[in-house]
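Before a colleague's protein record goes any further, I have to sign it off. What it holds is a sequence and that sequence's fold in token form. My question to you is simply how this chain folds and whether the tokens agree. Thanks in advance; the entry in question is below:
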Amino acid sequence: MAKIYYQDDANIATIQERKVAVIGYGSQGHAHALNLRDSGVDVVVGLREESKSRERARGKGLTVLETGEAARWGDVIVMLAPDTAQPGIYRESIVPNLKAGKMLMFGHGFNIRFGTIEPPDDIDVTMVAPKAPGHRVREIFQAGGGTPCLLAIHQDATGKAHETTLSYAKALGSLRAAAIETTFTEETETDLFGEQAVLCGGVSALVKAAFEVLVKAGYQPEVAYFECMHELKLIVDLMYRGGLSYMRYSVSDTAEHGDYTAGTRIINEETVGEMRVLLDAIRDGSYAKAWIEENERGRPWFDQQRLRERNHPLEKVGADLRAMMPFLNPVEVSSFDE
């Protein structure tokens, strides 16, 4: 049985007595820094001098220091820069400022799991990994809720790693929902698999393929967008609240019948076989090795794919339609580019 923690299992004063340096101000970094600040924690953000995020963080009333200075100041150093950037940041700015008794915390187990960061034995090494993008972590916190997280203790040099990590999760808002105890290995492997097979890779490919089938068959792109993309949120919201059973209860009998008759034709044994191949590549390290090497080459393939995907007809049609629905609070991805 999983070990699960809630609000009453942690004392928020523990993390309020520590100085927390959040390294990075991207999706997770901004959410952690702001939620901690609002929970009464002494927090600074560590960023390189040329980072465009510095003004955004300062604009929210946060103290911003150069990365090494932040690491030197902090008792708890939280690594929330992109996975592939972390080893360089660690070597250049964190290692010179680590002292016995400090805590090095991660929001994802990637670099510990694959050995690209190897901390010394005299510090605590822990993880609090919210199960949502950072923007939702922040929004749900502000609304009075919390995002569930995975929590792991990789190294307990002080004997207080578990207590401090639980307190951090409470300040982040996660214990309002739940914190499940895990390991760096389990979090990393399941997280990468979920992103690839379902949450990002699987869903994106399914939506695009269905959109293209309808458009090529002569249906209007706008109708195809609503059917294959827009309505997806409505279905996922039902699952979110009550699982697959509540979704099936809420839709029409015809839709439920289509679920039973078509689902296993789309997701068949061949698809499941590919999922197993994905998982094997994650577990044996070959996926991580390829992604690290792609970054070392300057990410030529990745950047080409990103540009191609942003120009997909689904994205063009969707942007026009969302612009006509201001209540969605539509965004353009370019506004987040640095």
In short: The beta strands are 4-5, 19-23, 42-47, 63-66, 76-79, 103-106, 124-130, 149-155, 179-181. The CA atoms of residues 10 and 119 lie 26 Å apart. The first strand starts at residue 4 and ends at 5. The chain is about 55% helix and 10% strand.
